[in-house]
Design a protein that fits this description.
Length: about 120
């Protein structure tokens, strides 16, 4: 299975690093799949708790990168851990955006700015 993945990755000329398009697509696809649960959690709990937990997961991603991903493992497990690390890194900004959207913080501030004739 891993050899088949390598073959297709090489055929598509996709790099296996953070800026490679495949890893962005994979990470954001996972975020979209998890978004319903993330938004339910944001609506259910206080946003300060959600930010704290999300930040801890964000820090965990860096620990995974520096301590676990460096250890030589089999390639399939390494791909899974790398995907998890990228997901944990990306979820923090996604959660912050979800909190802003659900609390309508942005919309209220934009309305204040646009209602001020001098700024507009």
């Amino acid at each position: 299975m891993v050899e088949r993945f390598k073959k297709y990755r090489l055929e598509l000329n996709i790099k296996n690093n953070y800026v490679g398009i495949f890893l962005f697509v994979q990470t954001y696809t996972l975020l979209v799949i998890l978004s319903k649960k993330i938004f339910e959690t944001i609506g259910k709990y206080e946003y300060k708790l959600i930010i704290a937990i999300s930040f801890l997961l964000y820090v965990l991603a860096f620990i995974i990168e520096k301590k676990i991903l460096v250890i030589s493992m089999n390639e399939l497990l390494s791909l899974f851990i790398n995907a998890l690390m990228l997901l944990l890194r990306s979820q923090f900004s996604f959660v912050i955006g979800g909190i802003f959207a659900s609390k309508t913080i942005i919309n209220q501030n934009i309305e204040k700015i646009l209602s001020n004739n001098i700024i507009a």
